[in-house]
Amino acid sequence: MNTFHYRNHALYGEDLPLQEIAERYGTPCYVYSEAALRERYHSFSTALGGNTQVCYAVKANSNLSILRLFAEMGAGFDIVSAGELERVLRAGGDAGKIVFSGVGKSSVEIRAALNAAISCLNVESAAELWRIADIAADMGKRAPVALRVNPDVDPGTHHYIATGLKESKFGIPMEQARDLYLQAAQHPALELKGIACHIGSQLLDLTPLGEAAARVRALYDELAADGIALQHLDLGGGVGICYHDETPPNPADYAWTLEQALQGLEVRRVVELGRALVGNAGVLLTRVEYLKDNGSKQFCVVDAAMNDLLRPALYGAWHDILPLHQSAEATQPMDIVGPVCESGDFLAKDRPLAAKAGDLLAVMSAGAYGFAMSSNYNSRPRPPEVLIGGHQHRLIRRRERLDEQWALEENPGR
Ligand code: LLP
């Protein structure tokens, strides 16, 4: 699907020239395509079939309107905090389809999850398991849990976003998992629901995902032989997308890989997809402030910065940068940088561009981990978010006002 495309040299999102959005809402500004979000969700849910619950990983993009869209399509949700739980509930998400991941759930968060009657807490350590058991017992409830195991497979991705290797902080080592299940099965306040795993993000090769699923399946079989009958296997997220010239897994191949590993198992499946559902559905619009030539390098200074989109600075991530209007002028290599006072504040390096002050650019594939990782660094207000559908556009989060940044602070001198 070609959500963002050129017509007569102007970049469109669906049927809207993006320039209209930039003029109406100002820059920087995030823009998401409803058609793309719907299409991605439906492709995955259809390929995976009715026995798989697609849970949207809220951390990728947690705007309430986006969550509501997924809720209406029947998605479940993968959350990692009380804040994400509250967002999903406010957006009309079904608590019975929420799984709660993360290594550091606080007692307050565990209580909130049990009160909301979510589907499953994915437990990351023995210490957390016993805390959950104590809290559930205290509340007179049984806590639905899965152990998140660490299958120790190399996902072949950036090491900051690899989570299924032995040295990472995530999950319970495979060799400790069976014992812990056996102990947990004895506890009256725990309901053993499944096994969970997640090995990393932006995976372009399906082999490690298949390997992890096979290891999870082996544990499931072992536990079944021990008399522990689990209801679901949560195989995590991590499916990569195309940022530049990668060939990411398509939903059918992904479904086939999981099917191969789990053949013959009737058990229900859960996946926790974030980036693959929203990544290519969003762009960040920005305007060129200045061109700058320091003798050996050209800089294109734009009004978006690392506080708006952190991925290039944090991971050296590549995002394509496209002009909103294609020009016939000759391009030259430039670093596209923001106004933040750090040398690491760049959106792209050495990109051929024919830009001049005032031009509009789109930073592509910014729908996942874009706004969600934004901050107020350098006291910059966070940008607005706009959802487009056909010819329509709708503001789903307005630009922050300056005074909102210090609204929670004391100003003793005044
Ligand atoms: N489930 C768990 C337990 C996770 O830790 C993650 C992501 C997901 C699901 C969703 O993974 P996805 O399908 O989006 O790959 N900020 C980084 C990505 C961090 C991902 C962390 N965990 C980035 O911008 O690339």
From TrEMBL:
UniProt-listed NCBIfam families: lysA
Location of N6-(pyridoxal phosphate)lysine modifications: 59
> Which superkingdom heads the taxonomic lineage of this protein's source?
Bacteria
Residues annotated as domain Orn/DAP/Arg decarboxylase 2 N-terminal: 36-278
Quaternary assembly: Homodimer.
What is the active site of this protein? 341 (proton donor)
Q: Which GO terms describe its biological process?
A: lysine biosynthetic process via diaminopimelate
Q: Could you tell me what this protein does? A: Specifically catalyzes the decarboxylation of meso-diaminopimelate (meso-DAP) to L-lysine.
Q: What is this protein called?
A: Diaminopimelate decarboxylase
Q: Which positions fall inside the Orn/DAP/Arg decarboxylase 2 C-terminal domain?
A: 29-367
Q: Which UniProt keywords apply?
A: Amino-acid biosynthesis, Decarboxylase, Lyase, Lysine biosynthesis, Pyridoxal phosphate
Pathway the protein contributes to: Amino-acid biosynthesis; L-lysine biosynthesis via DAP pathway; L-lysine from DL-2,6-diaminopimelate: step 1/1
Q: Which Pfam families match?
A: Orn_Arg_deC_N (PF02784), Orn_DAP_Arg_deC (PF00278)
What the record says about family reads: Belongs to the Orn/Lys/Arg decarboxylase class-II family. LysA subfamily.
* Annotated residues for binding of substrate: 275, 311, 315, 342, 369
GO molecular function annotation: diaminopimelate decarboxylase activity; pyridoxal phosphate binding
Q: Does the entry feature the keyword Repeat, yes or no?
A: no
**Keyword Amino-acid biosynthesis among UniProt keywords:** yes
